[in-house]
Description:
Layout: H1 8-39, H2 47-53, H3 59-105
Helix pairs in contact: 1-3
Amino acid sequence: xxxxxxxxxxxxxxxxxxxxxxxxxxxxxxxxxxxxxxxxxxxxxxxxxxxxxxxxxxxxxxxxxxxxxxxxxxxxxxxxxxxxxxxxxxxxxxxxxxxxxxxxxxx
Length: 107
């Protein structure tokens, strides 16, 4: 039989590290958006510029898709971090509750 052990404190530390990954992703997105905004629209307003930037496969759509996708990574890591933290709390609460019942029955 396989034994599973969970240390709530280690799980909380993992939640902090996962939150740091989330924050780093958010920082990268913010930096990227600022850098891109600072460059303006260097492709011009002529037909070649519109061909490059506009449309379903154009730069503007690709840029937005990339930022949206990266934002989903950030949300995913946020969810993981919250889940790890909440799981640690629930495991600890369950463990204390079980220990209290066990002590009560053995008195």
